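agent> fetching stored inputs for the S-adenosylmethionine docking request
agent> found them:
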Amino acid sequence: MSLPQSLVRSLDKIPGFDKEAFEKVHASGEQITSVRLNPKKMFNVQSSIFDAPLEKVPWNNYGYYLPVRPSFITDPLIHAGAYYVQEASSMFLEEALKQTVDLSQPIKILDLCAAPGGKSTLIQSIISDSSLLVSNEVIKTRASILSENITKWGTTNVVVTNNDPKDFQRLESYFDVIVVDAPCSGSGLFRKDPEAITEWSEQNVQLCHQRQQRILADILPALKEGGVLIYSTCSYSKEEDEEICDWLVNDCHLASVKYFLHPDWNIIETISELHKAYGYRFYPDKLKGEGFFIAAFKKSDMGETERRINKPRNKTEKISEKEVEILKPLLKNPQDFSFIKLKEEVLAIPAQFADELAILQSALYIKKAGVKLGSIIRDQLIPDHELALSTIIAADIPTLAVDKETALQYLRREEIKLESTEKGWVLLTYQQLPIGWVKILPNRVNNYYPKEWRILHK
Ligand code: SAM
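agent> prediction call returned; pasting tokens
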């Protein structure tokens, strides 16, 4: 693997850069696989990939390294949302948030560049139930993948949006925390994806730098005074890292935040040239992870922030008492939810966020909110896949445990045969985790796995 020499030369004076070790680790072809477990779903799971005691990712509570890369696509647990395959360095976001934000408090947090959902699923695992995550992706097709991964993760206090960063200016001073995991030139992933080397150019680094500034300038008005901005890239170029930090301090008047780093982590602290902003570099020759950069900032608190958003009229349809009675038995704690009807579909939103949803709806394009329970047709609920994978589903819903082969047939949306005395809607489970609905009829089983999610791999 031959690295772009202009990149290598440009890193020459950057703290922590060791040319020989850097080139050697890229030439080695070593691949590192890491996963992050879903704390709300990992009860009693014993999958073959987690059989052996695993090495922990040092800066994340739920992150583990796998000794070999298994076939994730044929593990039903990944489709059940039990874990997410995530590059280890980027799991540092957990530590970055813990050190800058009081996560026990209710916060509103925006993940601006969120697809496919690595950072958003991490955030969902560490914020409190009384906090709200808005997970946004500007590219429509990528917003669908994001929605799918958020659905699999199963928590309710999240809204997925599909907006340009500029659209968030309608939500002035709204968020306590904004995470910008910016689109970048991607040099940090060269070891994982050597093809990316051919797409790298100095000119693209410049274009990325300009785009990063534009995204940040567009989104900063939506951050509360005293709020926290976390900025990250998977690029080694200082134009996309320390120079952006300098610009955030100088032009946007943010205050840089210093992190405490455990010396064993081997993460390198850098200080930007002009305005002495702290940044944190992850080099693959120094730690078990790919190239990554992260920095945190605080917006100054002038003591004059009052949210200037009037509560808009709720545009959603009210649901009848009769319909509420149909829905209640589906949920563990129905009293904690507001039910919202969109045409025939019913959503469950944590009650405390009903007003927030109206505000978000007035400003943004909402792709997904809370958990879609299903459609009520002639007083019967046709349950939705989102309900099956959610962590709010009642414990006494009829379930049927299946083995791996049957689970995979189901996930391929093939015809399946089941031995069961149950009839009607039944939740299939694999190693105690729901994977989706079937309807058991007297002479056949209907497979309700979403068509667009079915696995094509044989
Ligand atoms: N945070 C994601 C995760 O952890 O899974 C990865 C995000 S990726 C580094 C950057 C994302 O920014 C991509 O999904 C990309 O579509 C999006 N993006 C591209 N151009 C953008 C723009 N102009 N404004 C906002 N987001 C953009």
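agent> quick read of the result: The two ends are 32 Å apart (CA to CA).
agent> awaiting further instructions
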